[in-house]
Design brief:
Layout lengths: L25 E4 L1 E2 L4 E2 L10 E4 L16 E5 L10 E5 L1 H4 L12 H6 L9 H16 L2 H22 L3 E3 L11 E6 L5 H10 L14 E4 L6 H18 L1
Parallel strand pairs: 1-4, 4-5
Antiparallel strand pairs: 2-3, 5-6, 7-8, 8-9
Length: 241
């Protein structure tokens, strides 16, 4: 492990760490869905950089030339679970060590045009429809602006509202995809839970490992939904502050 923010409950993105030059590759995850942190920039290293972008792929512009390999599950911003996108640089592909099982060797899938085995047809079809929608609204540049606005609105309310606090200690590392926060008085959670459920909001309980709340602002979520949550938070403050 090159670096970790476990010392602060994963509340920030490590920076300025030293990466040994004899590594086969350095692996990072661009967005942490559990703790709500996100790489706003990527480490510049001399070894091949591999990145799991499952939870923020196509949510913002990224210079793919920085990476030797990018992989992403479809289930956050591309389509239903069951499909994974892999983008691998040719020179990195050629470094695949011999002795890999056939299915685990990316060369197998490249040579077969990603059709070595029967693909999950429905998830792939829905990914196609989703990407057509994304292209229609202006592409990644357009959705990045929308996502930034969604996150800005919600983080501003968390910082303003006397009843809540964000869980990411380094504000510049806050995720635009997963906004993690908690009540300052956790004994009031049942009251808050009742209010957001009555507003037809679902799925904002935090990950089971950390508790609190987590609002996931993936591409498909309209900004109107964020505004509904903010209204509930403001009403909660009026009633219990």
């Amino acid at each position: 492990m090159a670096s970790s923010s476990e010392d602060k409950k994963f509340g920030y993105i490590p920076k300025d760490y030293v990466v040994p030059e004899d590594l086969d590759y350095l692996h990072i995850t661009s967005n942490n869905t559990i703790y709500g942190t996100q790489h706003k920039s990527f480490p510049k290293v001399s070894v091949p950089l591999v990145c799991d972008m499952s939870s923020d792929i196509f949510s913002r512009k990224v210079d793919a030339r920085q990476f030797a390999l990018i992989y992403a599950g479809a289930q956050k911003n591309m389509g239903p679970a069951g499909a994974t996108m892999v983008m691998i640089r040719k020179d990195f592909l050629e470094k695949n060590k011999s002795g890999l099982l056939t299915m685990l060797d990316y060369k197998t899938h490249v040579k077969a045009g990603s059709m070595f085995n029967t693909p999950p047809v429905f998830p792939v079809y829905v990914v196609m429809l989703t990407l057509r929608w994304l292209k229609k609204i202006g592409g990644v540049s357009a959705i990045e602006k929308i996502n930034n606005e969604k996150a800005k609105l919600l983080y501003e309310e968390i910082d303003r509202n006397s009843m809540f606090e964000g869980t990411v200690i380094s504000k510049e590392d806050r995720s635009t995809m997963n906004v993690c926060f908690r009540l300052r008085n956790e004994s009031l959670e049942p009251e808050f839970d009742k209010m957001w459920k009555e507003a037809n909001i679902s799925g904002i309980r935090g990950h089971r490992d950390v508790g609190g709340y987590r609002a996931s602002l993936y591409n498909a979520l309209p900004i109107e939904s964020v505004k509904v949550l903010i209204e509930v938070m403001q009403e909660f403050e009026r009633k219990f502050a």
